[in-house]
From TrEMBL:
It holds the Pfam family LON_substr_bdg. Keywords: Hydrolase, Protease. It comes from the Bacteria. One of its GO terms (molecular function) is serine-type endopeptidase activity. This is Lon protease 2. Residues 11-204 form the Lon N-terminal domain. Its EC number is 3.4.21.53. InterPro entries: Lon_prtase_N, Lon_prtase_N_sf, PUA-like_sf. It comes from Jannaschia donghaensis. The gene is lon2. PROSITE patterns: LON_N.
Length: 214
């Protein structure tokens, strides 16, 4: 468990479209670009072993920024190397952060000064969603998976803790990049669950013209 004072002011940042990391969830990554192989090597030398996942913006913001303002940092917990030098790694989600300034340096990968303020809840125990109706949610999920030709272990979903279930689906479902950013920025587990439900219902309606994230 991390405390707020344990979190560093500067972290390496890994922009990856569609790759959503959430606190207390795990994200497997396949690393093969030389600059990110070096990022992994450098991260292993730190005490915190944190890497900040971040979504690129679909379009540049008005201020010219190419990255979203908010990402989530994960601790490098597993690593294996293939015979041809690629890394298979797992990040364990720790906390969301807000980029305050991109940092230029000699490294070939991006680093950023970050603020952890406002995300203290990420460092606590798993969240509880008191309004979670599991049977109704699983019924909707079943219809969504059928429509998307997806499969899963339904027995494990029936028993999974609500935070693990909702966050795993947020990370794994084929939502659009901006939709995944909305899931990341959800202020509570209940809000994230409501957003997942809305996105699945929207997909089942065939993507009608209304913009559900406005």
């Amino acid at each position: 468990m991390y405390r707020l004072n344990d979190l560093p002011p500067t972290i390496p940042v890994f922009p990856l479209p569609g790759a959503l990391m959430l606190p207390r969830a795990r994200l497997p990554l396949h690393i093969f670009e030389p600059r990110y192989l070096q990022m992994i090597d450098d991260t292993l030398k730190t005490d915190h072993r944190l890497i900040g996942m971040i979504q690129p913006r679909a379009q540049k913001a008005g201020d010219g920024r190419e990255l979203q303002a908010i990402g989530c940092a994960g601790r490098l917990t597993q690593l294996s190397e293939t015979e041809d030098g690629r890394y298979m790694v797992t990040l364990a989600g720790v906390s969301r952060y807000r980029i305050t300034k991109e940092v230029s340096g000699f490294q070939p990968y991006l680093q950023a000064d970050v603020s952890w303020d406002g995300f203290e809840r990420d460092l606590g125990k798993p969240e509880v969603d008191k309004g979670f109706d599991r049977p109704a949610f699983l019924d909707l999920l079943n219809r969504y998976f059928e429509a998307q030709s997806l499969s899963t272990d339904w027995d494990s979903l029936k028993d999974a803790e609500e935070e693990l279930l909702i966050n795993s689906l947020s990370m794994l479902c084929p939502f659009e990049q901006e939709e995944k950013q909305a899931l990341l920025e959800a202020p509570s587990l209940a809000t994230r669950r409501e957003t997942v439900v809305t996105l699945m219902e929207f997909a089942l309606r065939g993507g009608e013209s209304e913009n559900i994230l406005q």
